[in-house]
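Re: the 299-residue chain
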Amino acid sequence: MQLRHLLIALVVPLTWGFGFALAKAGLDHFPPLLLMSMRFAIAAAILVWLVPVPRGHWWSLTIITLVSATLQYGMTFSGLARIDATPAVLLVQSEVIFGTLMAAVILKERPTLRQLVGTSVSLAGIVMIVGAPSLAGQMTGVVLVLSGCLCWAFGQILVRRLGDALSGFQLTAWIGMLAAPQMFIASILFEGDPWPALQAAPASAWITVAYLGIVMTVIGYSAWYFVLARYPVPLVMPVLLLLPVSTILGAVTFLGERPDAWVLVGGAVVITGVGVVVIDPEAMRKKMHDDMDRGESPS
C-alpha cells in the first residue's frame, strides 16, 4: 500500500474511534436516537447531491436502513449511554464475528478453519468482557450493544444481496437520508419531545453533532471507500483493528475513563480473534508479490 493511501486508511479508525468516544459525551445532552438522527441528517445533506438517485432500490434500501442504521445505531448507542465507551467499543468488535456466522448460516458461505478459530477466540473474549466486575449491574447496556451488533451483521447480509447495484457512497448517502427521519420518528415515540434537549444543549454538544455528521461519517466513510476501491479487502480490513485503540485513547482523553484491566484483557482477546478472522496472510502475500511483479513498492 502506498504511503499516501496508508495515511488515508488510518483516517478511518481515527475518525471513527474518536467519534465513538465523543458520541458518549454527546449522549449527556441528547438521547441516542435523536443524536443519531441529527448525525445522519447532516451526512445525507452533504452527500446526496454527489451520488445518483437509487431508482428501483427504494424498498431494499428502506429495509436495510431500518435494520443496519435505525435499529443498529439505536440499540448500540442506547447501550453506550449505559456503559463506558471502552467496553462498548470492544464489544462492538463482535460485529465481525456475528457477520461471519450469519454469512455461514444465511448465505451458505462456509467459513475457513482460520475464521472458525478466530471466531472462537473472539467469543471467549466477549464472555470475559461481559463478566468483568466493572460491568456488574450494567447488563442492559451490554445486551443493547450486542443486539446492535447483531443488527449490523444482518444488515450487511442484506447489503450483500444487493450485489454491486449501488456504490458505497450511494449507500452511505441514501441510508443517511432514510435513517434520519426514521430515527427522528423513533425518538419522538420512545424518547419523548426532542425540543427541551435541543433547546438546552450547549455549544460543545452541537460541536459533537457536527463531528459525528461531517468528520466521522462523511470524511471517515469517504476515506474508507477510497482505499477499499483500490486495495483488496484482506489488505484493508486490518486497519480497523486500530478502532478500539483510538476509541480508548479518546475515552481516556476526553471522558476521563479508567478502563478496567479485566475489560482490557478481554478486549485484547476479542481483537486477536477478529484479527485472525479478517487478516488473510495468503491474500496479503499474493498482493505483495503482484506489486513486486509490477515493479511497485509493497509499502
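The two ends are 5 Å apart (CA to CA).
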